[in-house]
Amino acid sequence: MSVGLATVGCIMATRSTGGSRGGRSGRSTSRRHAPQPRKGAGAGSRARGAPAQGKTGKAPAAARSDDPGSRGIARSWPVRAARGTWMGMAHAVGGATRAVGPRYPGTGPAEGEDDVSKAGRNVKDAKETGPGSGTAKAGTAPAGATPAGAAPDHRADGVGFFLLALAVVVAAREWWGIDGPFGDGVHAVVAGTLGVAGVALPVLLVWIALRMMRHPERAQANGRVTIGLTFVVVSVCALVHIGEGLPSPADDGFAAVQNAGGVIGFLFATPVVTGLTQWFAIPLYVLATFFGLLIVTATPVHRIPARLIGVYDRLTGNHRPGAGGDEPGDDAPPVPRGERGERGRKRKGVKGYVGDEAFEKAAFRAPADDAGAGRGPRPATQRIPTGEIPDEKGVTAVGPGAVGDGPAGTAPSRKAGAPKPPAAPAPMPRGEQPMFDGDTVYLLPEESLLVEGPPHKKRSAANDRVVESLTGVFEQFGVDAQVTGFTRGPTVTRYEIEVGHKTKVERITSLSNNIAYAVASADVRILAPIPGKSAIGIEIPNSDRETVVLGDVLRSSAARRTEHPMVMGVGKDVEGGYVVANLAKMPHILVAGATGAGKSSFINSMITSVLMRATPEQVRMVLVDPKRVELTIYEGIPHLITPIITSPKKAAEALDWVVREMDARYDDLAEFGYKHVDDFNAAVRVGKVKPLPGSERKIAPYPYLLVVVDELADLMMVAPRDVEASIQRITQLARAAGIHLVLATQRPSVDVVTGLIKANVPSRLAFATSSLADSRVVLDQPGAEKLIGQGDALFLPMGAAKPMRVQGAWVTESEVELVVEHVKAQLKPVYREDVAVAAAARKQIDEDIGDDLDLLLQAAELIVTTQFGSTSMLQRKLRVGFAKAGRLMDLLESREIVGPSEGSKARDVLVAADDLPSALALIRGDTTRLYDQDEDDPREGGAGSGDGTGPQAEPGPGGVAEDEDEDDFGGAVTVERDIR
Ligand SMILES: Nc1ncnc2c1ncn2[C@@H]1O[C@H](COP(=O)(O)OP(=O)(O)OP(=O)(O)O)[C@@H](O)[C@H]1O
To answer: Can you tell me the mean pLDDT for 871-878?
Structure first.
């Protein structure tokens, strides 16, 4: 526990703004060479840290601007003393300011932080230095941390203190009328500049100062506030000046200007009124004032009503669920990226992301004329509470960046000299979630780490040749049809054919072999008709195909439109639109395709997308890689909750752990009355979830858990029943618990992708399959057998009626390496020990069963469902010998599933068919599942009703969802039509 507490307090997730926004070089320089001071490190340590930059020959901008010492300017002692005194006073005032009012991680010791955690944090601070920071001192931040924001509270305190002093000076003259040459000078400046509005200046200065001191980390928000206030001040001065009759210094004297809108009022009001009359000027400046206030309060126009309700609730103390009043305001604790913008929203779907398309729907398409890549919100620097992972039955919850001193839970690192991973904390009572106190700064990887692809071609000579060939075929066979156009995708082009008045559509479909012959391609796919169009589509592979790079997909507006951490870049559709999907909305996906079709590449893109967009405290992963080669590159990333699992047996056990984790989450949801983990997290973040009386538990948000299995067949070979049962249980319930499965297989046969798995994994992605039968297993329809490999896929997200053809996004190994290097350099993984512990515990229970668990489960299921306790039936159905069947029967008897032997008669079956799940759970030794799911488990309701879209409630793939919009692939997917 103490180690857990010592781990981390909060992470500042910073999304770099890309090269175009500048500062990139400075940032990366500092990442590699300039360990920045952690919060709390004194100026001295900052100065000491700076020389470490010496390798590059110049210090990063942030360090240079922040630390005079780094500029090498020798200061005399009086200057240093004055500066030290000023900063000391400023920091004392700043600290006092932060100590007043609600606290949140990042601006001081969190509530409840104990000495141990503080001490632990200091240990961590001392240990954590970035790679390459050979000279880094204790107390320096991990490399890459807030270069521009080194000790933001120190700087902000200095500025804030100055503003406070200024406010006092202005108030002394403007409010209390202190006379004298100094006072007159102040009045001349204040009233001369702002006119009568200068009276409000002290209030404004105090407000800005307090804000800077209380939220030093919100550099960006402070910038926004400054812009908004500028609008307000200028507009108010202009309005006052108009109201006072537009005095001018030349005609009416400077005193008249001072008594009106000041120089600002004069400069902004006079030209507008002269040019456009005051009937235009007054509404203009009223609007500008209003606009400025919206900027200051970060209120989009459509959120004004919700904000007003929020203000009302705050004033009246009214706690309205889902209303703005309870939501974090500008001055409330910062909310993690992806969960912002929830103020004032009524709950509909997943709270906190209402209005976010990727959350509202499982799949969505952006219109073709959607703005291009590079637009949309760019996640900014922010501080977020670190990912404390809740535990199961006392499961230790540990988060990234923890530093311990024991060997347990060590993170295997492929890099020589990589920092030693921390020890896992001691187990805690069920549901306990240790808080992470202190500051850890985490930067999301820069987008520029992912390369840009070539611009998309809308037409090429190859397309013209195909049009000629198609026309030739129609002429040759006397079919009245013509090519009316085409849309070129990266891999295939869809040619649109319109048939003549009396021509049967079948005439075209029957020509498919001739068309394939004419265009010299075996992979011709005919859509008759193209959904939503009176035209036939003929998809023909491009002889000059293009690679879709992941970087472009993630930079597209479709991806930027949402900040959801589980949004991934899928690729491009057949019209060249970018496709992104929200894994949380899938909520589980089956990825299948023949060897070499592109599954692993897809999984790489998926994991890289998550690494690019999500902090370890937002998303944690369990990676299962029985092939042992595909995912090893991710070993040691802080998003991992357990080392990459390569043994199929262990993988089956890990799935079992996921079930337990899900159960633990559900217990919390039930206990605190929330239906979805997002609701729970939002409530935790605003302090609405309080530990039960007498409990010392510290409640923290749950991260999403992404479980990736890169070869389901290997798991199904070792423990089919167990794996199937775990998958079934996870997929049925896990959505509301924030747990999502990605199952990949190159053997989409019915023994691997069983009916049970299919029924519960609603989203499917089929790469080229080797047979039509495989396509049917994956998609419930043919089509995948005609795909051309190398990332060409049919994507059928949950709720979609028809699959969309996409070319999967491609990310090179070197890009992945860069991203992985970036995340690993910042935090070390902290593994959940209970994954292994649960497995060990189970082994003991199963000792007398030995390797027969799976057979025993099948036997129990057979006997209970048929209510017929016959050994020879077991022999027949399970294809086992007499001795084995007899042994199974004995085991079943020992577990009171069947009665004792009655000679040649069948044994009594003691368990009713309805109680089968409990009986199977008993055999597995899983006591947490000993309840009747259908009747007693409060969790069932939660799952289905989290947002009303549990897998069972949804139309499955192939099923037709109501309101199906052709362009709206069920909601998990966005397609952006800006073609690049
Ligand atoms: N999206 C893509 N864009 C371009 N090329 C791709 C894409 N996906 C896969 N490829 C090409 O296909 C090759 C095989 O892909 P990948 O390894 O992902 O297949 P796989 O289905 O995982 O095969 P296996 O099951 O054997 O691991 C890659 O090495 C690459 O050359």
So the answer is: 89
CATH of the domain at 878: 1.10.10.10
810 lines ligand 1 (CB under 6 A): yes
Find residue 804's DSSP bridge partners. 795
Residue 13 pairs with which residues in a beta bridge?
A: 382, 442
pLDDT tens string 156-183: 778 888 888 888 888 888 888 777 777 7
Ligand 1 atom 18 nearest Cα: 598
- The answer as to whether 496 is a domain residue is yes
Q: What contacts 331, CB < 8 A, 6 or more positions away?
A: 211, 214, 215
pLDDT band at 590 (very low <50, low <70, confident <90, very high): very high
Atom of ligand 1 nearest to the CA of 627: 27
**Cβ of residue 514 lying under 6 Å from some atom of ligand 1:** no
601 lines ligand 1 (CB under 6 A): yes
**In this predicted model, what pLDDT tens digit does every residue of 424-464 receive, in sequence order?**
333 332 233 333 344 567 888 988 899 988 888 888 888 99
The answer to pTM > 0.80 is no
The finding on whether 704 has its CB within 6 A of some atom of ligand 1 is no
Atom of ligand 1 nearest to the CA of 810: 1
Could you tell me if the CB of 791 is within 6 A of ligand 1? yes
Residue nearest to atom 25 of ligand 1 (CA): 595
Domain residues for the domain of 275 are 155-298
| CA 47 vs CA 33, 41, 124, 438, 685: distances in Å | 14, 10, 20, 22, 35
Residue at a domain's end among 269, 298, 327: 298
**Domain annotation covers residue 232:** yes
How many domains, the chain?
3
* Average pLDDT over all residues of the chain: 69
**For residue 657, which of 673, 645, 669, 668 has the smallest C-alpha distance?**
645
Sequence-ordered list of residues with C-beta below 8 angstroms from that of 894, at least 6 positions apart, any chain:
848
Residue 485's CATH number = 3.30.980.40
Q: From the CA of 493, how far away is ligand 1's center (Å)?
A: 21
Residue where one domain finishes, among candidates 298, 315, 330: 298
ipTM: 0.97
